[in-house]
Design a protein that fits this description.
Layout: H1 13-20, H2 33-41, E1 52-56, H3 61-74, E2 79-82, E3 94-96, E4 99-100, H4 103-117, H5 124-138, E5 143-147, E6 165-168, H6 176-179, H7 183-190, E7 200-202, H8 208-221, E8 225-227, E9 232-237, E10 240-245, E11 248-253, H9 260-275, H10 283-292, E12 300-301, E13 316-319, H11 325-337, E14 343-347, H12 355-363, E15 371-374, H13 386-395, E16 400-402, H14 406-417, E17 422-426, H15 429-439
Helix pairs in contact: 1-4, 3-9, 3-10, 4-5, 7-8, 11-12
Length: 440
């Protein structure tokens, strides 16, 4: 069957993506063999890319990529970006020279990849990554920021033989069913993106064993490592971002993204820009990038829209996609630093996530601990039941209840926070995308 014989409506990107998702029985099946076969059939577009910065890690990948993009674009560069998952629509994953891919181009690329794949088993992420590589190989750009989907060693993005640089952001426990049960095994998978002779920038690490594993692998493959708190450091002093490395001290504005964890993410991006001179980013570009960086659903304040209107006047609405224990700790730190006022949280989580681990840092806030309203994750995702989330919260000492859906939860949370308080939606990027879509 050829695509030309099908109704035109089946060739929209959504229809093609739905059809391609049926080509493999597993949503996630880490392997490079299928990807290498498909790329060979497509003429190896991964060999015709602009300079690549390859980014792996558990938390902070997207923020580091967003910060580097803002810096490079401030320098006048054309930047391709590949990230996942998307929040509202798939097109968010593929940015071509500064602009999200349009529907016509995406549908045509997916048709081309589907034809080259010839019905062979392939995962959704592999086929869409191949389509992205095709797009990036055909549109001129100065830089490609390539975010790993899951892990690193066997991720579909790990077919670029010699990137300009690699980055490993903070490593913590997540996706243990695919990457291993502890920080050491997960770090080993992340470190699999390191390449001989290619600079490897390493962000601050909470687990010493993760850092040791990353450095051992970098040494084994001959990747020169530039490590946080050894080769570079970042801190906030007197309201300014102070970055230091062997080349001296740089005084910069704090990143536009909210939270202490975003200071570390900004430092990681700066370290890459400073150590990889081929990127051509001067101090003016670093400054402008920090001031303009934007990354939705990372402590994003929703100042208007349909969901914000459900809250009492003066009650702030925040949104974050954090969903693992390290993200919970980072968000709790943010809440600790906000202005005084009651906080309520709306939480939904995938069934595979560590609910108690995510919520524990909020319980540790004491008098600042939020009240919680739990819901089932919208859509067809495998959700942790709202009652289970509430039970975990209660066991930790958090006041918790459940609601039928996000609007109902926001009304309940708003009543608890009141005017002058705040409501934080968190626990899942899928929930964050649902919230952005509903908010308009």
């Amino acid at each position: 069957m050829t695509l030309a014989t099908e109704p035109a409506t089946s060739r929209t990107s959504d229809h093609v993506l739905q059809r391609l998702s049926l080509l493999h029985p597993k949503l996630i099946d880490l392997s490079l063999g299928r990807m290498e076969r498909l790329l060979a059939a497509l003429g190896h577009p991964e060999r015709r890319l602009p300079p690549v910065v390859h980014v792996a890690g558990t938390n902070g990948k997207g923020s580091v990529v967003a910060t580097l993009r803002a810096m490079a674009e401030a320098a006048g560069q054309r930047v391709h970006v590949y990230t996942s998952p998307h929040l509202v629509r798939f097109h968010e994953r593929i940015r071509l020279a500064g602009t999200l891919i349009d529907e016509t181009a995406l549908a045509a690329l997916l048709d081309e990849v589907e034809a080259a794949n010839a019905g062979e088993p392939i995962t959704f992420f592999e086929v869409t990554t191949a389509a992205a590589f095709l797009a990036y190989s055909r549109v001129p750009a100065d830089l490609l920021l390539l975010e790993v989907g899951l892990g690193g060693r066997l991720d579909a993005t790990n077919v670029v033989e010699r990137p300009a640089a690699c980055i490993i952001t903070s490593v913590s426990i997540d996706h243990a069913e695919f990457l291993g049960p502890d920080a050491r095994s997960i770090a080993s998978e992340k470190a699999g993106i390191a390449r001989p002779g290619v600079p490897l920038v390493v962000a601050p690490q909470a687990f010493p064993e993760a850092l040791a594993t990353i450095l051992a692998h970098a040494d084994a493959v001959g990747a020169p490592a530039f490590v946080a708190d050894r080769d570079w450091s970042v801190a906030v002093r007197d309201g300014r971002l102070c970055y230091r490395d062997a080349n001296g001290l740089v005084d910069l504005p704090q990143p536009r993204l909210v939270g202490r964890h975003q200071v570390d993410n900004a430092g990681t991006a700066i370290a890459c820009a400073r150590h990889i001179t081929a990127l051509g980013l001067d101090q003016a570009a670093l400054r402008a990038g920090l001031e303009r960086v934007d990354w939705p659903a990372r402590m994003q304040r929703l100042d208007g829209g349909r969901l914000a209107a459900l809250l009492p006047p003066g009650c702030a609405l925040w949104l974050d996609g954090g969903h693992n224990p390290a993200a919970g700790e980072a968000l709790a730190q943010v809440l600790r630093g906000l202005e005084a006022g009651p906080t309520a949280m709306v939480v939904a989580m995938l069934a595979t996530k560590d609910v108690a681990g995510f919520l524990a840092p909020f319980a540790a806030l004491g008098d600042l601990a939020p009240q919680l309203v739990a819901i089932d994750l919208p859509g067809d995702h495998a959700t942790t039941p709202a009652a289970t989330i509430a039970a975990h919260a209660t066991a930790l000492g958090l006041a918790a209840t459940t609601a039928a859906d996000l609007p109902a939860a926001l009304r309940a949370a708003g009543a608890r926070a009141g005017a002058g308080g705040r409501v934080l939606i968190a626990g899942s990027l899928y929930l964050a995308g649902h919230a952005l879509a509903l908010n308009g």
